[in-house]
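User: I'm writing a tutorial on reading structure tokens. Could you give me a worked example: one chain, its sequence, then its tokens, then a sentence or two explaining what the tokens reveal?
Assistant: Sure. Here is the example chain.
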Amino acid sequence: MKPLVLDGESLTPELIAEVSEYNRPVVLSSEARKRIDACRKMVEELVDGGQVVYGVTTGFGKFSDVVISPENAAQLQVNLIRSHACAVGRPMSEPAVRALMLLRANALCKGHSGITMATLQLLIHCINKRVYPVVPEQGSLGASGDLAPLSHLVLVLIGEGEAYYQGKRLQGAQALARAGLGPITLQAKEGLALINGTQVMTSIGTLAYVKATRLARIADVIAAMTLETLHGIPDAFAEEVQLARPYPEQIGVARNLRTLLQGSALTTRQGQLRVQDAYSLRCLPQVHGATRQVLGYTRDKLGIEINAATDNPLLFPEKALVVSGGNFHGQPIAFAMDFLKIGMSELANISERRTERLVNPALSGGLPAFLSHNPGLGSGLMIMQYVSASLVSENKVLCHPASVDSIPSSAGQEDHVSMGTTAARHAEQVINNVAKVLAIELICAAEAADFVGEGGLAPATKVLYDCLRAIVPKVLEDRSISAEIERTAAMLLSGDWLKDVEAVSGPLY
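And here are its predicted structure tokens:
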């Protein structure tokens, strides 16, 4: 696979996914190297000149008024990492850690952080040789950067902490050695440059966003199949209706549905069976389209953040300028993550209502109760709707906005924080729940298709039906289906089935 060239300017969510999911290798651009060297030279001149610069020749946070002698500048950085590495909770996933390392490297490429080339190169080597620090996911306030979690990443670079290598959890120095690498000695400013940033919230948030975009698109296909099995009415998706309320996202979703339903023998027209469908079918463009609006907002903010310098202080060698600012504050990402989880939760809310219509004989238009092949003796898919309802309810709790909270820290010096990392973690949980809710709808829709005649499905939805049936056989008699829900959800999150559908339907919005 061709290496991804990091330049601090052109990283995208999709490129991050290539590194985090498929281990695409990474190299530094020549321009980034020049910027990094120029900035490092400036740091050394500041230290040699005895200038007072936050985090370089002073302590941190409330200790910013304590001046550190030049001979202690390196020890200051090591002490910073050790003292700040107190995050707790389960480790971040390996894909999230890969994204985290990539984002930290990309931020350093901008040449405003004062890192040495040796330190940045070791970070790049760890990405490429698959040495992944153990980073506990809890403990960040989302301002002053993701200090505690990022410190665990840096511990490994100095030969401490823990890391995964070739599937084994090892001491940091041991993991480096097995990969043919050695630890670095932090120089002035480097510890602060490595941990003072928003990369934990942004890495989790970016991967959550990538998965969310896949779910939003496959949700249109799943909903189209459900509409078919309920003999729904596609007239509501007419272009004229959408142009009368011209949200581009609503128009795009309606176009998807018209494309997906082409060739279906199961849909009906207005007045044929009923005049209009329930909202969970008729309002698909409006609800799914609104979620696409949220995704657009989230992408815009992530696109800026993943190519930003977010540590403090920032150095501008071309102007001989050092500025203590606040780019480490995660408020933009906190808002985006809260918005993302709310927008995605609605995909699950409306999906669960469609599942209810599939299994409820009072709403399904003649399908057997709970899609059971032996109603009464067999419960069929009754409890799958319970599970879906449980996940939807859990999402409502997780969607409480983290960004409305703030707790002062560092003796009042850091008196407003974003809680952006909490928002990102909750967004990730919500999106994983949405995948399971959509998986349940898909399994139920496929079972309903068996009753109404899967041969009548549109060519595009038939592809998805066949994909599902390769891993979830027909539920002809009661069985535990938990593992099959999980496998289906994983496939939806991967985006692979969407590619199969688009091979028949053409590109979807």
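What the tokens reveal: The chain has a mean pLDDT of 96. The first strand starts at residue 4 and ends at 6.
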